[in-house]
Amino acid sequence: MILVRSQFPGLKQDWTFFDNAGGSQILKGAVHRINSFLFDKNVQIGGSYEVSQSAAAALHEARTAAMHLVNAARPEEIVFGPSSTVLLQNLARAMQGQLSEGDEIIVTVSDHESNIGPWDRLQAMGVVVKFWPLDKEARSLKLDDLAPLMSARTKLVCFTHVSNILGSVNDVRAIADFVHARGALICVDAVAYAPHRAVDVQAFDADFYVFSLYKVFGPHYALMYGKYALLAELDTLYHYFYGKDKIPGKLEPGNPNYELAYSTCGIVDYLAELGERAGETGSLREKIETGYAAITAQEIALSERLLSYLRARNDCEIIGDPSGLDPMRVPTIAFRLDNRDAEKVCRAVDEHHIAVRHGDFHSRRLAECLEMTDKGGMLRVSMVHYNMLEEVDRLIGALEHL
User: Fold this and answer.
1) Which end of the chain has fewer CB atoms at under 10 Å, N or C?
2) 274, 322, 164, 286 alpha-carbon torsion, rounded to 10°
3) Which of 3.40.640.10, 3.40.50.300, 3.40.50.720, 1.20.1300.10 would CATH assign to domain 29-268?
4) At what angle do helices 284-312 and 389-401 cross, to 10 degrees?
């Protein structure tokens, strides 16, 4: 743990960061990559001169690192962008040429608004948007509820890999198989999944898969994976002379931010080092997977420490699976305390230099569905592997102090 925490300079502050679903601390290695690009390669790619060639090589290295991070088939399947929200808005724009009036897109009420709003706005061109409802009793998505929504006109089903409130992992492969068998594609928001578990887009059979780097120990930037054949079909968002075959550049208008994209290499280096220290000697991808296995073990311990305390309170409603021992639950834990305003609880916890959050976390439709928008919404404690059991105990002490 000393080694892990030493890689995150922000942890030297006198704060416990339990708001990681809003944004994690950044790796020293990611910052080093950003600086090295800005100091040594800060020119436009595409030139014949040596430094420009070096900049282009760095961008390719970034795409290759991202390829290994998500297990894509080729670097060109990686699209960089300012945020997951922007990437999903761009994807919706780039798909318009494939859509006709009466075509259908399915979204869920359990998603962050980033994977709802861009598709909902396509109703202006005649696209029909349907909502896949949440099973309120199980607080999960059920294929039985999706089935009656699908038709011959369904083009796309959009859903989250993990809700940033519920914390439970959806079975992307099972949903992909179900949707693909009915002739449609899937688009997955993985923002709340990627910091916690190894991403394998080929195993998931995901068509489009998006997450933010600033929640996976990097800077404020994001990436989208798309199957190469599907990216080729999308409209260009760049200049008219960037045709459909300009992949992925046609989806990165104005070019990606080179230095922030390059930080991906630092993230991958770190995950691989975790794998090596856990004894993995295989390929880079195998090291990443082993690194994530170590992350999972730490996060299970953190989740269960907090959830065991919350389960024991007679005034607490846990939103989602109340057990922290299931690896299909990430350490993003939302709850409500009876007769307590969530904002006031946050401010009281602030005094202990512990950062948590309250509200609906931009998943307002889910908060409305759960009828939890009053009294400051929900409290959320979102942990990652660099958090420690001692920090959880500090939070429990702060809650007891209430």
Assistant:
1) C
2) 20
3) 3.40.640.10
4) 20
Q: For residue 295, what pLDDT is reported? A: 97
Closest CA to 158 of 119, 195, 124: 119
Q: What is the pLDDT of residue 402?
A: 86
CB 109 within 8 A of CB 366: yes
Q: Which amino acid is at 216?
A: V
Q: What is the pLDDT confidence band of residue 136, given thresholds at 50, 70 and 90?
A: confident
Torsion-angle region of residue 254: left (phi > 0), alpha (psi -120 to 50) or beta? left
- Tell me which residue of 11, 45, 4, 35 sits closest to 25, measured CA to CA: 11
- CATH 3.40.640.10 placement within the chain: 29-268
Dihedral angle at the C-alpha atoms of 175, 71, 77, 122, nearest 10 degrees?
A: 30
Average pLDDT over residues 39-64: 97
- For the domain made up of 2-25+291-394, give the CATH fold: Aspartate Aminotransferase, domain 1 (3.90.1150)
pLDDT score recorded for residue 244: 85
**Per-residue pLDDT tens digits for 352-367:** 999 999 999 999 999 9
Quick check: 243 pLDDT over 90? Answer: no
pLDDT for the residue numbered 74: 98
Question: Residue 53 and residue 371: Cα distance in Å, rounded?
Answer: 55
